[in-house]
Amino acid sequence: MTGSFLRLGAFVLGLLGLKTVEVLEPHHAPTAPLRLRWITNIGLGLVNGLLVSLLCASCFVLTAQGRLPAAFAPLPRLTSVVWVQILVAVVLLDLLSYALHRAYHGIPFFWRFHVVHHTDLDLDVSSASRFHTGEVLFSSVAKLGAVTFVGIPPSGLVVFEVVMLACSQLQHANVKVPARLEPILWRTLVPPAMHRLHHAPNRRDADSNYGTILTLWDALLGTFNRRAADEQPSFGVPRMRDPKVLSLRALAALPFRRSAEG
Ligand SMILES: [Zn+2]
After folding, report:
1. Beta bridge partners of 175
2. DSSP assignment of 50-117, as one string?
3. Least confident stretch, 25-29, 185-189, 233-237, 244-248
4. Quick check: 120 and 199 in contact, CB under 8 A?
5. What's this model's pTM, rounded to 2 decimal places?
6. Could you tell me the residue range of the domain that residue 240 belongs to?
7. How far is the CA of 26 from the centre of ligand 1 (A)?
8. Ligand 1 centroid to 189 CA: how many Å?
9. What's the gap in Å between 205 CA and the centre of ligand 1?
10. Considering its fold, how many domains does the chain have in total?
11. Which region, left, alpha or beta, applies to residue 151 given φ > 0 means left and ψ of -120 to 50 means alpha?
12. Ligand 1 centre from 211 Cα, in Å?
């Protein structure tokens, strides 16, 4: 339960903090009206947040009661130092998130769900919440499987979730990053400029820069894209720009429609 409150607190703090910076120092002028986007994005974020909280809570209760299969769980046997366990958890789960994100782009069935995230016609802090509930369910099951298999402590999962949320909100935010900080971020933590390329309407750019926390995985695994940004950025999926297709209700049904193919 503490983890859920921490996640909710981090979500609200990041949302309000980065929205303030977006108003004071935006990177680009809005490329789509804010109202419909925010209703959709925050609506999805609240539903998904509730789902993740329920899943995490029930998984740890079952683990504690010994109802889940005995985990292979090498981590607690390799080290009993809690901060090392947490660090390993963050790095491993970030690698898993990278792999899942690549699978969501590469496997047509999963793209049907992930395309919802890419239909956003602008990019700001609210875009970090725009995921179809089906995708959040797949990702949660994969992550909880890894947590059980590796033996990641609950504190490791909670720290990862909060760090991932903060990094995701930052990389989607419509903020100017100080020029001095930009090159340091490109070598360490995914900066907004790197993730903006991932949201470009053309599929070549969209199929690159999959990282959420570390830039290391894209650099190591051949998906790093550092082309110069366009003068005026544009976002979204070219054939899905009609407001009727982009309502919360239409997006919930999108994976089950023919138009989500490809
Ligand atoms: Zn993507």
Report:
1. 26
2. HHHHHHHHHHHHHHHTT-SPPP---HHHH---HHHHHHHHHHHHHHHHHHHHHHHHHSHHHHHHHHHH
3. 244-248
4. yes
5. 0.90
6. 2-260
7. 23
8. 17
9. 10
10. 1
11. left
12. 9
DSSP secondary-structure letter at 240?
-
CA of 101 to the centre of ligand 1 (A): 6
Distance 215 CA to ligand 1 centre (A): 15
Give the Å distance between the CA of 209 and the centre of ligand 1.
Answer: 8
Q: Calculate how far, in angstroms, residue 105's C-alpha sits from the geometric centre of ligand 1.
A: 6
Q: Which pair of structure tokens corresponds to residue 113? A: 């769900």
The one-letter code for the residue type at 65 is Q
How many Å lie between the centroid of ligand 1 and the Cα of residue 3? 26
Distance 68 CA to ligand 1 centre (A): 32
Tell whether the model's pLDDT for residue 162 goes beyond 70.
Answer: yes
Question: pLDDT tens across 71-118, in order?
Answer: 577 888 888 899 999 999 999 999 999 999 999 999 999 999 999 999
Tell me how far apart the alpha carbons of residues 51 and 49 are, in angstroms, rounded to a whole number: 5
